[in-house]
Amino acid sequence: MRTGVILLGLSVLGAISVCGGAATLQASTFTPDPGETIQLWVSGAPVGAEFLWDLNGDGAADRVTQAPRLQWAVPQGVHRVGVGVRHQGKVIAAIEALIVADPYIACWQTISISGNTWEVEVTFRAKTDLSAPGLEIEVPAGWGVEVLDPGNLTYKIEGGIYGFWYQRLHPGDELGFRYRLYPVSPGLSFVFSGKASGIVAGRYYAVPIAGVVSP
Fold first, then answer.
1. Distance of alpha carbon 11 from alpha carbon 5, whole angstroms
2. How many domains does the structure of the chain reveal?
3. What angle do CA 188, 193, 199 make, to 5 degrees?
4. The domain spanning residue 140 has which CATH number?
5. DSSP string, 116-166
6. What range does the domain containing 171 cover?
7. 47/68 Cα distance (integer angstroms)
8. Predicted confidence (pLDDT) per residue in 133-191, tens digit
9. Which end of the chain, N or C, is surrounded by fewer C-beta atoms within 10 Å?
10. What's the rounded Cα separation, in Å, for the pair 59 and 141?
11. pLDDT tens for each residue of 46-87
């Protein structure tokens, strides 16, 4: 399995979504191969809205469309992608996601709400032969963390989650890890941040975890 749709608590196979305001950003994948063409689209926007696509994270619109969808051949690298939904001259939603086009590692997170907590599932997929796959996940200040399913990950929690699997992976092999975040104080916001790593061709290699930037 490669992707899944996250609709604030509902997980459906086929795409990935990031919610912002009343609109939802969906992508065919957050972890394409370099140069792969992906589909981006927005659902839940009002009739007559226009869409301001920022494909390089500089805050400026690279493309403006009347239709709520875009095809994009993703260059190799890490891309902070955003879309603003403008209606009647006002931006009513702004949504951001991290898309990582890497030839060696695909790692993404899906998020669902359970009460006042956020449950996060991280999927690590090898695109090449590698060993010692690992994760480093930042835990936002003021939030608690609980590991729900370590998935054979050897880990420690010290201001974040740090761990690795004693395994060798081949292209297409996947590993999973699931945890829960909960606010120590009400009203806290946060930004997801983390990286996935492995030993590739005898050298340490790491990429950011793709997916939601801030729910």
1. 5
2. 2
3. 155
4. 2.60.40.1170
5. TEEEEEEEEEESS-EEEEEEEEE--TTEEEEEEE-TT-EEEESSEEEEE-S
6. 105-212
7. 10
8. 999 999 877 888 999 999 899 999 998 999 999 999 999 999 999 999 888 766 666 67
9. N
10. 26
11. 999 999 999 988 989 999 999 999 999 999 999 999 999 999
